[in-house]
Amino acid sequence: MFFHGNCQVTRHICPRNCYDSCPILAYTRGGKLEYITGDKKEGASGRLCSKREEILATVYHPQRLLYPQRQLRRGSGQWQQISWNEAIDIIARKILELKERYHSTLPLCLNKYSGNFSLLHYAAEGMFNSLGPTTQTTGTPCFSSGLDAQRLDFGANVTADIRQMLEARLIILWGINPAWTSVHTMPIIYAAQERGAKVVVIDPVYTETARKADYYIELRPGGDAALTVLLLQKLAKTQKLSYNPDQTTGAAELIDAALQMPAAPLLKAVGQTDEAISFLAGLLAENHPTHIWCGFGLQRHIQGGLTIRLIDALSLLTGNIGIPGGGVNFADKGMDIFPFHIMQKRQDTRFVNINNFAQSLQDLTDPPIKFLWIACRDLLRQDVGLKDLLQFWSQLELVVVADKFLTHSAQMADIVLPVTTEFEELDVYGSYFRHWVGLNEPAIPPQGEAKSDLEIARLLTRRLNELAPGTSTFPAHRRDEEFLAAEFTPAVCQALHIKKWQDLYQGPARFRHQAYPWQDGRFATADGRFHCCTLPKDFPQMLPTKEYPFHFLTPHAQEHINGQSYHQHHLMSEYPLVYIHPDAARKHQLQDLHPAVVWNEQGQITVSVRFRTDLAPDIILSMQGASQKGGLNVLNSGVPTDLGLLTTSASGVAFYDVFVNIAPK
Ligand SMILES: Nc1nc2c(c(=O)[nH]1)N[C@H]1C(S)=C(S)[C@@H](COP(=O)(O)OP(=O)(O)OC[C@H]3O[C@@H](n4cnc5c(=O)[nH]c(N)nc54)[C@H](O)[C@@H]3O)O[C@H]1N2
Ligand SMILES: Nc1nc2c(c(=O)[nH]1)N[C@H]1C(S)=C(S)[C@@H](COP(=O)(O)OP(=O)(O)OC[C@H]3O[C@@H](n4cnc5c(=O)[nH]c(N)nc54)[C@H](O)[C@@H]3O)O[C@H]1N2
Ligand SMILES: [Mo]
User: Fold this and answer.
1) I want to staple 287 with a disulfide (CB 3.0 to 4.6 A). Which of 161, 169, 651, 665 is the partner?
2) Rounded to 5 degrees, what are φ and ψ at 510?
3) Which amino acids bring their CB within 6 angstroms of ligand 2?
4) pTM of the prediction?
5) Where is the 4Fe-4S Mo/W bis-MGD-type domain (predicted)?
6) What domains, with CATH codes, occur in the chain?
């Protein structure tokens, strides 16, 4: 903290699940947080995105939850403000009752994910683990398949510093829309363009990023694996592929297998002309280094893992791995340096796949789930398999939601607990794409009666132990600072080049000091080699049917993160906007700006139609979380992707392999 004029300035790091993880400076005057701006430390842009208003508005938003409340009947909207003591007492008694009834703590379930990934927020897991074996989720909806793909190929998940793009001659933005989802990377991309790099966007949708690119390659959703094989074929035929046999396994086999695949079905899978693919192959052959950035959108398909593996191999075989400006960026697991002591991890947790939660709830019978705690998550808006989830809901005896707003899930809870923002608590957050770890220091006191997830864990632990001594082993007496100190082991401090966690008061620290990985040609795999994937005989690719003739793509929106849009509901349409090509729309008797129904075998939703001439005729596009009513995921059964088990213990989910039909309402 320091003082500037008559303002107190505190350091923060945006703890949202975003590529940019922006360092923030917060200006507080007279106890009121007045202004936030980007901090330039560690090569950050010094700017904040358009969500800056949201971040600030959340703190003092009139609809923010400030007191614990109890709902008389789920979904009734009849809320009663209660004290923390009452809320925690109801929860503690239910936990003890269930434990006694089932002689087990497995009926207690925690579902926590994307709201805030900071270290001390893992107190929620810690509190659950302190009770005994409970049911929790594993895996991630974001990036499981791609993580596994890179782990299999390189042996680890390491990204290059984004400034490496300045060294590239060609930048391929593949299934990523940074103009919306990583806006602070765009200046680097523009600067690279100014230095002569060509930028290609590969996406089934003509995105904001595509508008900024030099070339845009449209393709069918899920056609990327086929596209990569076509590129390998063309480059192999012109002797543009090479590799070091001492550093690679499976390269010759992969090239052979690629050459044996007939081109016609591949071209059909991509939905592109041979000419366009030759053009792209030419760019790759002529421009060295090529930097490829694979987005999370790219791997939200059943073959997402294979796709990333093929792209890794393409990069290796064109000589782009381990050189400045080259490589395939996806996601970094640098935060794994932390021990996460606060979680009090245990071996006997009953884990279920976060991407198959609804089904798991139904399948778990011995003992069944009776108590659900939701934190940092709006299950009923963002999860898949909602039909099953809602069906199961009535069997839950107590649903607790800790959140800042009365989310879709909170509206179906028994108890809501108000949580603090990153300006009201102490914590540490690290990025999965930038290479830094930073601090959130309290700028203002908790608003209303809001409490951090850690403080809530403490309260519950204390009450449980009052009612039944020895129930919880969570170290509730420990102060925030002590929890942090335990995470910053000597090894962590050494890796971050700091002496103690308090050094982060001066700004974020780096967990990666190398600008780009694999410089010495040795990989983190068991044998130190890069592993090329095996090519299957033909590719799985999910395609529209007569009954459901449209791909339903629901990528991430510009103005808000995921479902975190309650602060701006007044600006949003009531129903989701769905974009469709006017020709396709007319075939289905749809009119621009009119309501319609979108449905599939999972259910149906009401939407508002918007014509968009740049869309393929078989795609319906809608941004997730971008309407008051939400509800897109009612249509999503949650088909698993091919990979994810290795790194996250659960497969990913093919969010974008969803097919629908549409008609006027
Ligand atoms: N503004 C904003 N930023 C965010 C988020 C947000 O909600 N809003 N969310 C954060 C989170 S949690 C995540 S996981 C990331 C996600 O951010 P991104 O990695 O950008 O992922 P998506 O938005 O899912 O999809 C990116 C692009 O993939 C395209 N795509 C879909 N299918 C295919 C395909 O088969 N092939 C190809 N080549 N492209 C395809 C989509 O059309 C989309 O343009 O962003 C983070 N940052
Ligand atoms: N159709 C479709 N669905 C998707 C996706 C898609 O691309 N398309 N993307 C998926 C992806 S990649 C993701 S990451 C998920 C994200 O979905 P979720 O995991 O539900 O995450 P968010 O919507 O980011 O945030 C959830 C809640 O956390 C709350 N929160 C914020 N800070 C805190 C805190 O400190 N404590 C507590 N207790 N709560 C807090 C927020 O107010 C918000 O209501 O959605 C997935 N769903
Ligand atoms: Mo995500």
Assistant:
1) 169
2) -90, 140
3) 17, 113-116, 121, 141-142, 375-378, 382, 402-405, 407, 419, 453, 554-556, 561-564, 624, 632-633, 636, 655
4) 0.97
5) 7-63
6) 69-138+340-421+445-495 (3.40.50.740), 151-333 (3.40.228.10), 550-638 (2.40.40.20)
